[in-house]
Every structure is written in structure tokens, then in C-alpha cells.
Amino acid sequence: MELQNYSLVSEFVLYGLCTSQHLQHFFFIFFSGIYVVTMLGNLIIVVTVISDPHLHSSPMYFLLGNLSFLDIWLASFATPKMIRDFLSDRKLISFGGCMAQIFFLHFIGGAEMVLLVSMAYDRYVAICKPLHYMTMMSRKTCMGLVLVSWVIGFVHSISQVAFTVNLPYCGPNEVDSFFCDLPLVIKLACMDTYVLGILMISDSGLLSMSCFVLLLVSYTVILITVRQHAAGGVSKALSTCSAHIMVVLLFFGPCIFIYVWPFSRFSVDKLLSVFYTIFTPLLNPLIYTLRNKEMKTAMKKLCNQHVTSH
């Protein structure tokens, strides 16, 4: 804790996405719309899963509802401030606010990675062991999988923030992004953080790669198993899992690029951060609802009930 005595920085300056005033006004309108749609889309999924008895009792939709709940938080940890900053000349964030952004990004991101692995396991059991599905994916099991995802996300995040908050910050305080991202913040410390940075970012990279490999193995096993046991099963399995695979690629692609190759100076990192924190939570509900008849039917039923009640 002694290092904190040397921290003279009480706030950080965020560069944001661009410096053009006209572009910032356009981005304010554009991202405000994206944020509202993201929140509504994920809220509708959560409410639909909770209110429909069939979906609520289904392991797949229970996990999907939890994914949408996490996406609401993933979309909210930095986006509202980014939107507000488009109208500000100086984009400032307090030291505590900066550490909070790092904490919530890694907490929610870590939990969502593990939850996606749980969803892959759910599809594996449903397709490869259908007779044992309700036994293996009981409500107790689903609750346990969700709890494990939250615990892993929390432990991962605390391990990141505990080191970051105690670094000495006494010089530059400018972060070249629209939020406080770990690789950018630790480079501002008044000490050699190269080894520490490698260790901390390797933690994120290891979690990302581990979950990604587990997901690849899960979906490969699903396809191989179905191909061996059913004629034409590959197309059926692909149809069932395609939405999950799309979400996995959209979520892990930018994340792995940023945290496995963290010290690149390409401006593409900023674009990937936008995609990872803003567009992924928007695309998840679109992918799952547009490709899912049960979800669309339940949403129509909920909408009709709301209309008739008025």
C-alpha cells in the first residue's frame, strides 16, 4: 500500500474516439441510439425468459437470460460516459472511476466468457445426450454454472484491480481510449511495469484462450458425435449451434486480439474495444432472437398480453 503515497494523479484524461467536433456530434446520436436498442433488446429477453414458464424452466433459455443480464452491464460500464463525453471538451474520469471501469469490464467480461462455456456444455448435453438432458441440466446445475461464472469473473477482476490500484501514478494521465482499459492505464505508472503488465494481461489472455479452446472443443465434439450417430445430423447440429458459434466468435475475436497481443500500437485496438464493449451486447439479442422461433413466439405472446391488459 506504500506505493499509493506516490500517486499524485487524481483523475485521468480520456482521448475518446476522435477529435473532430462534427464526428463527435454524429457519434453522440449514433451511439445513443445503439445504447437504447441494446438495453431494450436485452431487457426484453430477460423479461420474456422470466415471464414465460416454458422458457424459464428451460436450461438453455435460463442461461440465455443470464447472458442478456450480463450484456446489459457490459454495455453500461463505459458507454453512457462515452456518450456524454462526446459533448464535452475535456473528457475526464476520476481515479476511482477509472479503477471501477477496469473492475467491471473484467468482472462482467470474465463472467460472460465462462457463461458462454456453460451454454456450450448445455448444447453438448442436449444434442449428444438428449435422454439425460433434464437430469444433467437440472435447475440446480444451471444455478451452479451461473454462480461459478460470476465467481470466476469476480476473482479474475479483483486480481487485476488489486495490482493496478496500488501502482504509483505521478506523471502522464492521458488514456488513448474512450474508457480506462488495463493495458493503457498500467503504462502510465511511474515505474517499469513491463513484467507486471505481461503478468496481468497474461491473466486475461489465459482466461480468454482457455474459454475459447474449451468452446472450440465442445462444438467440435458436438458435430463429430452427431455425425457418427445420425444421418444428416451435421446440418441439424450446425443449425442448433450456429447462433452460439456466431456469438462466441464476435465476443472472443476482439477480446483475444487485445489481450493476447496487448502491446500493439495499432488504432485498430480502439475499434475492437468499441466492437467488444458496445456492438457485442447489441448483436447477442439480435442473433438469438432472429434465429429462434420459441423466443420470437414468447415475445409476441408477452406483447399481446401487454396490449390486451391495456
From TrEMBL:
Alphabetic keyword roster: Cell membrane, G-protein coupled receptor, Membrane, Olfaction, Receptor, Sensory transduction, Transducer, Transmembrane, Transmembrane helix
Compartments (UniProt record): Cell membrane; Membrane
Signal sequence interval, chain numbering: none
Lineage top rank: taxon: Eukaryota
SUPFAM superfamilies in UniProt: Family A G protein-coupled receptor-like
Principal subcellular localisation of the protein: membrane
Residue span(s) of domain G-protein coupled receptors family 1 profile: 41-288
Sequence intervals crossing the membrane: 26-49, 61-79, 99-121, 142-163, 206-226, 238-261, 273-290
Topological category with respect to the lipid bilayer: Multi-pass membrane protein
Keyword Transmembrane helix (UniProt): yes
CDD domains in UniProt: 7tmA_OR4-like
Any Pfam family the entry gives: 7tm_4
InterPro entries: GPCR_Rhodpsn (IPR000276), GPCR_Rhodpsn_7TM (IPR017452), Olfact_rcpt (IPR000725), Olfactory_Receptors (IPR050427)
Family: Belongs to the G-protein coupled receptor 1 family.
Chain's role: Putative odorant or sperm cell receptor.
Protein name, per record: Olfactory receptor
Organism: Acinonyx jubatus (Cheetah)
Classification of source organism: Eukaryota, Metazoa, Chordata, Craniata, Vertebrata
Gene label: LOC128316162
